[in-house]
DNA sequence: CACCATTCGTTCACCTTTCAACTTCTTAGG
DNA sequence: CCTAAGAAGTTGAAAGGTGAACGAATGGTG
């Protein structure tokens, strides 16, 4: 049985919007990464520091952190090992579930965070937020919201 | 002399828009990548096939292709080696500049492209384009345009 | 013309990510 | 309880990415 249908190609407007979106993402990632380099941090490092610093007791379970930062457990494990060696975080056993581990933000990690955050925020402003009007930013957010919801609902499906 | 100024933190709206943007990008990349996997292609592969198929004589210089796909020459060189082994492209000497090489789309590469494109477009629709109204997509595009321009102007600066 | 800075693309050594296998512990069912 | 299914996290090997260094070719300048 035939299930093929004519492909629904993108219209010019759609294609243009799509390509811009992809391009912005790649270039933006590149710039933000570059602006963090002087501090010897990657965006992944920074993201993890943010999550930890916003968590109760400055700690998170490995699995939760992996889910929150959208990466595999394996990748996170290697990543945390590196950050541990750099003194930014430390592993700590979990009493209630002895399979589990916490990643805990160290004093050093917190200081690094506080030192770097202003620069990173400035970078986000310079390359993104400050380049569009508050109204446009709001429109952008409104447009992305349904997409974010859809994608969240797709996480780890077939 | 003191050059520090109070950090311009993001407002709640700004932060929310920003985080959504980052999140969408990561999840979207993940989904598109996943939808290409059954065809044994990565987005990088696909992107290169698109660029080549849209070029005159189905060929591009390495440097131009690297610039177009926003990756380092080194990375592209490895990437093309892999794609060459997969039979999708082939390297060809450049007559007018004997330092140079062309990456040329092969017959196989073209067929792969034509086979995969409808699926990829469907994927882009499913996870992005079709989730927002044409008006919202247009707003999105309008909001991103100045950002894209800014970032293009930053390419390879200090 | 001869020179030297520059460009083109590859390579090497090193780091990061992926994937599957593995250990340890928890938990639901009989 | 005991067992089997499954979750938490790590590990190690293989694949992919980075950045500096390199050889070959080009092209503007004196």
Automatic annotation (TrEMBL), chains A, B:
Record domain HTH marR-type: where: 14-149
Domain of life: Bacteria
Listed InterPro entries: HTH_MarR-typ (IPR000835), MarR/SlyA-like (IPR039422), WH-like_DNA-bd_sf (IPR036388), WH_DNA-bd_sf (IPR036390)
Organism: Streptomyces huasconensis
Identification of the protein by name: MarR family transcriptional regulator
UniProt cross-references to Gene3D superfamilies, sorted A to Z: Winged helix-like DNA-binding domain superfamily/Winged helix DNA-binding domain
